[in-house]
Every structure is written in C-alpha cells, then in structure tokens.
Amino acid sequence: MKEKVMMEEERKGERKGNDQAAVMAIGAAHDDEQFDGEKWVHDSSIDHKGRIPLRASTGAWRASLFIIAIEFSERLSYFGLATSLIIYLTKVIHQDLKTATKSVNYWAGVTTLMPLFGGFLADAYLGRYFTVLASAIIYLMGLTLLTMSWFVPSLKPCEGEEVCQQPRKIHEVVFFLAIYLVSIGTGGHKPALESFGADQFDDDHAKERKSKMSYFNWWNFGLCSGLLLGVTVVVYIQEHVNWGTADIIFTAVMALSLVIFIAGKPVYRYRAPIGSPLTPMLRVLVAAFAKRNLPCPSDPSGLYEVAKSEKTKGRLLCHTDKLKFLDKAAIIEDNGNPVENKQCSRRLATVTQVEEVKLILNMIPIWLATLPFGICVAQAATFFIKQGTTLNRDIGGFLIPPASIYALAAIGMIISVTFYDKVLVPVLRRATGNERGIKILQRIGIGMIFSVITMVVAALVERKRLGIVKSNADNNLPEKGSMTMSVLWLAPQFLIIGFGDGFALVGLQEYFYDQVPDSMRSLGIAFYLSVIGAANFLSSLLITAVDRITEDHDGRSWFGKDLNSSRLDKFYWLLAVMTLANLCFYVVLAKRYSYRSVQRSSSVAVADCYDKDAEEV
C-alpha cells in the first residue's frame, strides 16, 4: 500500500513537471500547429521571466538598439578619457613623453586584456546580463573616484591651482586607481554587452541571421558616434573649461547608460550560463592523449556524437580532417561494454566537442597574425595625438584640442562601415553568392592593407614636420618648432586608419564571435579585445627595444624627450615594413583556414564539413 501511494505521488510529480515543461516549451511538440518557429524562438534563449521568448516582442533590433545606445554612452566616456590620457599625464602629472606613452599603453593593454576574465565569468557563471550590470557599477565607481580626484580638496593635483610643477602623490594614486577601476569595469562590460547584443538574433531564422551580420556594423556605428562626441565636445571641455567638468559628464553619461540598460530588460533574450567552457576542452585533450595509440577510423561516422534531438544547448558541428589526432577523443573503445564506454566521460568526447577544440586551436595563428595591425592602431591614441600638440591647431579662428583630431578616425570608420553595409555587401552578395558578401578573414585582410598605408603616410607627414622644425631652427626661430604646419596634415593618417578599422576591427569582432563555440561567445569578444590589448603591450616593448637599439654614444635615439628630438618617421617606416611582411603571412593563413560548419540536418550522426548536411557559418 505504501509503495502504491509513493508511486501515485511520483506520477503526480511527473505530471506536474510535465505541465511546467509544457508551459516552458509553449507546446514544443512536433506537430505543426504547436511548433511555430515564426512565433517562438527555439535557440536555447529565454525571456526575462524564464520562458521561451516570443519572436514578435523580444530580441532582434528592438533589443539590440537598447544595447547599441548603451555602447554609444559608454564609448563617449571611455574615449573622452582615453584619447586625452597622454595629454593629462604630460601636462598635469608631468610625465615625460616616453613614460607617458608607456603608461597609456599599459593602461590600454590592461583594459583590453581584462575582458578575457570578464568574458569567462559571463559565459561560465554570471550570464551576460548580470555581468554587464555588475561591471557597469564598477565602471561608475571608477568615474566617480576620478571626479573626486579633481574636486575633493585633499585629492586635487595642486592646492589652489589647476596646474603645478609637481602634483600631489595622493592625486596620482587616486587617479591611477580610478582609471584602473574603469579598466576592470570595461573587462566585464565590453565582451558581455557586445555578445549579449548579438544573442538577440536567432541564427536559425533566415531574416534574423542576416540582420545579425549587420549588427556588428551598426554596433561600431554607435561606438564611433560616441567616440566622435567624446573626442570633440568632451575634449573641448577638458581643454577650455577643466578636466573635472569633463569627469562629471563621463559619470553622468555612464549612470544614464546603466538606467537605459535596466529599462530594456523586458525585451531582451537571455542565455543561461552553462559552466566553464574549459571543462569539455580539457576532456577532449585528456581523452585524445589516453587513446593516443588507437587508430583513427577512416569513416567519421564511427566517431561518437549525441543525437541532434538530444542536443539541448548549442549546435552540432561537422567533422573536419584537420588536427586528426584530436579525433581519437571521440573513438568509442571496444571493451565489451558499449554503455560503460559512453558513460566514461573522461575518456570519451563528442565530435562537436572535438571540433570546438579544433576551432580554438585554429584561431591561435590568426590571433597572432593580427597583432602587428593592433600595434599600428595603438599609435593613433598615443603618438598621433601627441603630434597634434606640436602643430598649428587654429582652424578658422577655432583652436582644436589635440585629442579632437582623433575624431577623424571615427569619421573614417563610420564612412567605412556604412559604405560596406549599405553598398558593398548587397553588391558582393549578388556577385559571390556568399551571405556575408566576402569571407570574414578577407575583410580583416583589407583592413590590414589600410594599416600599412597609414604607417607610410604617417612617416611622410612626420618627415615633413621634422623638416619644418629644422628649417625654423636654422633660421634662428627654434621656438616656432612646427607650429607653422597645420594640424590638418594629420587628417589623412587618421582617416585611413579609420577606414581600415571599419574593415579589420569589425571583421575581428565578427570572426571571434562567430567562430568560437556557442558556449564561449563572450570569451570570443574578449579574444578580439585581447588582440588590441596585447598589441598595446607589444607596442610598449617595441618602443623600449627600439629606444635601446638606436641609442648612440651621445644618448640620442629615435625617442627623445619630446617629438622634435625624436625620429618617429623612422619608427613608422619600421611598423609599415613589419605590417607588410606580416600581411603576407596572414594571406597564407587565411587561404588555408577552415570556417566552422554546423549540421543543418538530423539525418546523420556525424556530418562531414563538405557534405550536404553541413552549413558554413
């Protein structure tokens, strides 16, 4: 009798669980009336109440526009701070050019490497929404502390003066603490927010998939619009009012972006964190090593894979022939007990898990090959802006702040992204039959070509500037330096690097988001940001190495105490040659690269990446 009661209670529990599952699935039975792909989103996402999202009221552009607006606000604050940082360090903190450049590069490096940690937390434990929320609060704390460092009497750089020869040590400590808090905030904000925006589009829905291909273009349009406002209006306030007023604007804008982000909560689509993505990767490596002596089957269908109907999160990947050693992780060992073999997770991985490891390993050469491009980009926020301080910035009676010249890079990127999305892509789709127009790595390669051209133009302009400095010195007018040369001479190099960013930077974002496993989307964006971060560190190391190598017996090198005693033109030529040589290496990698292929049919257990059941993404 007791067993009967227990069985009845168990059946009731099962019925209750089944009822809840039915509500969550919104009739996810396989009859056509209930399974409506146009009405419901079946891509493992949920709405803010934990239910399967309605396509008409969640996600897509209605949600991503909130996120792009937040990126606009955050980038206004970030670039308003970042582009003027070298000027603040030299004018207020009184660091010399070499030290200030290294300080900026180290800060930029930390800021763009921190997303590796933030992206991991977002994917594995916190989820993207809560990662953005927490990091935005830390970001706001940093900006609040930055504002206090200017207005609180005991933290101000000087007592009763805005500029002094030696600022207080406490101001330096608080200032660097504030900007590194901003770095930590950016570490979670950047990878989680951008991937959260891309998550609003369903890859299995044709219309939303095409919209997602435009998402990264318009994301960068919002980014550049915020950058444009940050390096013009805000930088003008820094130059002509004071730094503290600009800090108040940064703080207010960041607080507003936090409110906007929370307001969009009902229309977002969410992805639940699924634990560390490193665990299945480690399993593949351990299983492949444990079965290293087994021969790989000639037919990939002999490898282990879960049925597509059992795959609850992510998509099944197709088998590829590269890195075949790793395929051994998916071999089912024949020891007389097939059930036990499959349950021994430490010695068995699925084909999809193996292919995910291959994806990450294949990305490493591409990541390395994009570092020289990142080094070129790093010059725009340091030496390019510092060059602007030595030129005549009077345009029609209006004195342009040095950092505002960076706005031309943003304008170049806006033009590039808009032209690419609205003109090039439709034409290229018809010409190539590729949904993207051209392959992602081809887009990145075009941007690299622009970076080579940028360095050549920058070298020629700097050579001309140094010629004017020498001419004025020969005419006993050394105090004029290069002030007789207009700052507009810098316009071409900023515009060209902006054009290149529209191809390479946007391409890198798309590449690292699309080509990583589905469980690592935030980390994918972090990988993109780490290119820029590592490039900033490498730029500092390169400056140190070149400084020592080129130093003569009199202690002079390519990097002097100021620009007029330096030879930046030679440094730019060096970067142009390095980037050009690297571009040749990159072309070889891009031609040999295999893009991720997703199974589009459940008719096979393991699909080869070249057969009809595979779809390249």
Automatic annotation (TrEMBL):
Gene3D superfamilies: MFS general substrate transporter like domains
Compartment list: Membrane
Keywords on record: Membrane, Phosphoprotein, Transmembrane, Transmembrane helix
Pfam families noted in UniProt: PTR2
Membrane topology: Multi-pass membrane protein
Major localization listed first in the record, in broad terms: membrane
Similarity comment text for this entry: Belongs to the major facilitator superfamily. Proton-dependent oligopeptide transporter (POT/PTR) (TC 2.A.17) family.
Protein name from the UniProt record: Protein NRT1/ PTR FAMILY 5.6
Organism this protein belongs to: Punica granatum (Pomegranate)
